[in-house]
């Protein structure tokens, strides 16, 4: 019979697996990853110029049914640090000379080489689009992998540079030693093989990084992710050929539709790119004339650009068509550019998603790491759509993001309803759970929130109880802004290891909004998810620190506190899942990767065997939530609930990341299966030990 020692080991494993996917947040507390870096090449040599050899009515329904990290919008948007007056006059002139001469001129329709059942057609309002067009009347079932793609480029984000391999994107663990280039002291590799793979580009990049650092200042210590991605695309052009480049060139720039402020920002990015790749200098006096100098004009031509306008178009196309490269659990970790995937149009009710089931690294994936997966059944002739924005955002926020970044207005069904609802004063016939507030009569239902830009008092009517009430849009707006400010303070406090201040700020932010709106509402849903991650990180930090201490009593007290934080994270995760699954999945459909990962997180938290450090009444008082959802009893009831959520998560992961033979659901599904196997083994120990009773 299994021993209690085995049981303790399995419980520890459950918790370690819970923390595993939170390593990125945990890294904020520790500099262990930095100390593990060897300042040598992966082969042990010093780098030089030669390559290396060799509306519901229940307030908190909890049933197994994140801001969305699975959107196309670039999450590492760099704030333009170049003031308008600092931008070279030639770029400024080029930014106002009209539409690009390089807009695509494909013969439509045509079938994609990657999947002949997909056809590129011209749409009525959105330019080109991809349609499901099989030879017969075959239905595309949800979970079908529509495209397997290798992006033209994938580049690590700023936050991941010191903790991930620059080629395969593998994160550094406490047991591995990443090695970095001792010349630029920036790029890191997990192996000699990854270094060799990257050398063709890095031998040029290395010099550019050193030149940038030689003239760096506190405001610009390193080139941002956008600049590095653009430069790598340019440096790859000679080796990849013109067909490869023409695919990039065919992407839409939408420059003619962009506002002057957007063009100014793009011009600033173009200048930063020029500075990085060696066109011009950091001197203000010389900067104004850099494109009039023959040497720089020739340098621009050597890189394949006939004019500054072409360079500006290139940057504009990149900004419009870039994807967030994410890990297998949807954590953003960089940028990716893929012209084929960029053909897919947007909908706030998408029938497909763009994912990286095994991470954005290229190693081990013969068909490429990027996948386009159907999350709904698609009829023949139906257009394939994905979401360019966070689906948990309000109608107003989604509309603003699409207009500012992509220069169009969404015409999907949900936005047509939202447009009508936004013109009303809280009396919409259908209540979007993202744009809702609790019924002031406390019946448990929710009402349509008044217009964000509204003034004076508005009358709202609850569809659940029928009662009418008045609400002041300005007061609600002030409450939301205050909560967002407190959430920002909480993040800053967590980075500074100020745990007490972090929790106080979270209470002021999340607690403030949960009184006003349901967990599905914007911006509460994204705040709940962030708060859940922060509490898990705090608990992980306490566990890691106290395991190294020899004082049993201190360790016991700390473990109890860590358990309390995990319980709080569990409550928050329950609200996240509730918010994501309301109204029959109108925000995140069944099988959407963001929803599946949220269910997985909740399941892992429930089985972490956390025991609140205080009795139930005191735990409620200490919670950041005014009315925290009640958890099942510790032990088998909580474990069984966690197991049910894990099973549902596994099924939805197989939809969201693709039902491919042998790799169904990607790494996230594999992770869920491992947890379930360990959990079933633990439950057998419970039964054999007579602990189930």
TrEMBL record:
Keywords linked to the UniProt accession: Metal-binding, Zinc, Zinc-finger
Pfam families: SET, zf-MYND
Gene Ontology molecular functions: zinc ion binding
CDD domains according to UniProt: SET_SMYD
Domain of life according to the entry: Eukaryota
InterPro entries, A to Z: H3K4_H4K5_MeTrfase (IPR050869), SET_dom (IPR001214), SET_dom_sf (IPR046341), Znf_MYND (IPR002893)
Domain SET: 116-389
GO cellular component, one term: nucleus
Annotated MYND-type domain residues: 165-206
Annotated stretches, region: Disordered: 30-72
Polar residues composition-biased segments: 43-52
PROSITE patterns: SET (PS50280), ZF_MYND_2 (PS50865)
Protein name: SET domain-containing protein
Organism of this sequence: Ceraceosorus guamensis
């Amino acid at each position: 019979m299994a021993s209690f020692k085995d049981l303790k080991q399995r419980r520890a494993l459950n918790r370690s697996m819970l923390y595993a996917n939170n390593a990125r947040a945990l890294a904020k507390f520790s500099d262990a990853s930095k100390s593990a870096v060897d300042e040598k090449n992966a082969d042990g040599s010093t780098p030089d110029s030669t390559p290396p050899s060799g509306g519901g009515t229940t307030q908190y329904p909890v049933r197994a049914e994140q801001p969305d990290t699975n959107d196309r919008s670039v999450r590492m948007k760099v704030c333009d640090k170049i003031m308008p007056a600092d931008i070279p006059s030639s770029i400024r002139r080029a930014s106002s000379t009209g539409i690009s001469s390089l807009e695509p001129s494909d013969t439509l329709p045509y079938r994609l080489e990657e999947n002949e059942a997909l056809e590129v057609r011209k749409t009525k309002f959105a330019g080109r689009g991809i349609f499901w067009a099989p030879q017969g009347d075959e239905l595309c079932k949800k979970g079908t992998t529509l495209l397997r793609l290798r992006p033209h480029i994938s580049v690590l984000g700023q936050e991941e540079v010191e903790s991930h391999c620059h080629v395969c994107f593998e994160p550094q663990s406490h047991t591995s030693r990443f090695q970095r280039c001792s010349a630029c002291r920036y790029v890191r590799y997990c192996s000699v093989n990854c270094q060799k793979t990257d050398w063709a580009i890095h031998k040029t990049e290395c010099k550019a990084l050193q030149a940038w650092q030689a003239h760096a200042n506190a405001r610009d210590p390193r080139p941002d992710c956008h600049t590095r991605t653009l430069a790598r695309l340019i440096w790859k052009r000679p080796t990849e050929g013109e067909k490869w480049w023409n695919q990039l060139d065919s992407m839409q720039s939408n420059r003619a539709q962009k506002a002057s402020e957007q063009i100014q920002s793009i011009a600033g990015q173009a200048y930063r790119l020029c500075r990085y790749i060696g066109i011009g200098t950091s001197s203000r006096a010389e900067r104004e004339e850099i494109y009039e100098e023959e040497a720089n004009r020739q340098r621009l031509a050597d890189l394949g650009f006939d004019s500054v306008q072409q360079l500006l178009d290139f940057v504009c196309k990149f900004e419009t068509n870039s994807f967030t490269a994410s890990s297998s659990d949807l954590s953003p970790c960089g940028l990716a550019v893929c012209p084929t995937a960029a053909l897919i149009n947007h909908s706030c009710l998408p029938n497909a998603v763009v994912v990286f089931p095994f991470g954005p690294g290229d190693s081990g994936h013969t068909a490429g790491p990027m996948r386009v997966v159907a999350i709904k059944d698609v009829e023949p002739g139906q257009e394939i759509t994905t979401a360019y924005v966070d689906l948990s955002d309000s109608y107003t926020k989604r509309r603003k993001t699409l207009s500012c970044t992509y220069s169009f207005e969404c015409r999907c069904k949900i936005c047509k309803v939202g447009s009508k609802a936004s013109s009303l004063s809280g009396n919409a016939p259908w209540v979007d759970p993202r744009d809702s507030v609790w019924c002031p009569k406390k019946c448990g239902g929710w009402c349509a929130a008044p217009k964000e830009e509204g003034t004076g008092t508005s009358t709202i009517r609850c569809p659940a109880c029928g009662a009418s009430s008045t609400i002041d849009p300005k007061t609600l707006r002030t409450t939301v802004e205050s909560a967002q400010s407190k959430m920002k303070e909480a993040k800053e406090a967590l980075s500074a290891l100020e745990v007490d201040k972090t929790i106080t700020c979270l209470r002021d932010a999340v607690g403030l909004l949960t009184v006003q709106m349901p967990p599905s509402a914007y911006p509460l849903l994204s705040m709940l998810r962030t708060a859940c991650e922060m509490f898990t990180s705090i608990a992980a930090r306490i566990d890691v620190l106290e395991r190294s201490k020899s004082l049993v009593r201190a360790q016991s007290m700390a473990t109890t506190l860590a358990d309390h934080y995990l319980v709080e994270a569990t409550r928050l995760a329950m609200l996240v899942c509730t918010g994501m699954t309301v109204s029959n999945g109108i925000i995140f459909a069944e099988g959407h990767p963001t929803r599946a990962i949220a269910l997985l997180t909740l399941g892992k938290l429930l089985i972490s065997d956390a025991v609140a450090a205080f009795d139930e009444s005191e735990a409620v008082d200490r919670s950041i939530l005014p009315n925290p959802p009640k958890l099942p009893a510790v032990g088998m009831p909580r474990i069984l609930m966690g197991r049910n959520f894990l099973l549902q998560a596994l099924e939805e992961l197989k939809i969201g990341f693709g039902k491919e033979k042998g790799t169904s659901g990607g790494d996230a599904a594999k992770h869920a299966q491992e947890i379930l196997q360990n959990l079933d083994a633990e439950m057998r120990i419970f039964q054999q030990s007579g602990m189930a009773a």
